[in-house]
């Protein structure tokens, strides 16, 4: 299979609603663009944390997903 900006099949995703707010599709170029990576202060269980994150339009991706994306 060749990897490019699109997958040639429809993935069947079953996100845990307690952990995933939304599933968003993005081109590979957006995931690899360093301008989309940053750090943000986020309130988690009453505590302010500085976390690595990615901003795509109005969508903020952080947590385990951001950690996985940082490995691309």
Which helices and strands, and how do they pair?
Layout: H1 28-32, E1 37-44, E2 47-56, E3 59-62, H2 64-69
Antiparallel strand pairs: 1-2, 2-3
Question: Quick gist of this model?
Answer:
It is built from 2 helices and 3 strands; from the N terminus they run H-E-E-E-H. The protein is of the alpha+beta class. The chain has one domain.
Q: Please summarize the sheet with the most strands.
A: 3 strands, antiparallel
Summed up, the domain count is 1
Low-confidence stretches: none
What is the averaged pLDDT score?
Answer: 82
Q: What is the 3D shape?
A: globular
Structural class: alpha+beta
**What share of the residues does DSSP label as strand, in percent?**
25-35%
Helix content: 10-25%
N-to-C series of helices and strands: HEEEH
Oligomer: single chain
Number of extended strands? 3
Report how far the terminal alpha carbons are from each other: 18 Å
Question: What is the overall number of helices?
Answer: 2
How are the strands of the biggest sheet laid out side by side?
1-2-3
Q: Can you tell me about this structure?
A:
With 72 residues, the chain is of the alpha+beta class. The protein has one domain (1-72). 15% of the residues lie in helices and 31% in strands. It has helices spanning 28-32, 64-69, and strands spanning 37-44, 47-56, 59-62. The chain has a three-stranded antiparallel beta sheet. The chain is globular, with a radius of gyration of 14 Å.
């Amino acid at each position: 299979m060749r990897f490019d900006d699109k997958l040639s099949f429809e993935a069947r995703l079953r996100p845990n609603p307690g952990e995933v707010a939304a599933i968003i599709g993005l081109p590979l170029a957006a995931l690899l663009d360093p301008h989309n990576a940053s750090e943000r202060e986020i309130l988690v269980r009453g505590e302010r944390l500085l976390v690595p994150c990615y901003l795509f339009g109005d969508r903020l991706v952080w947590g385990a997903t951001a950690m996985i994306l940082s490995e691309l």
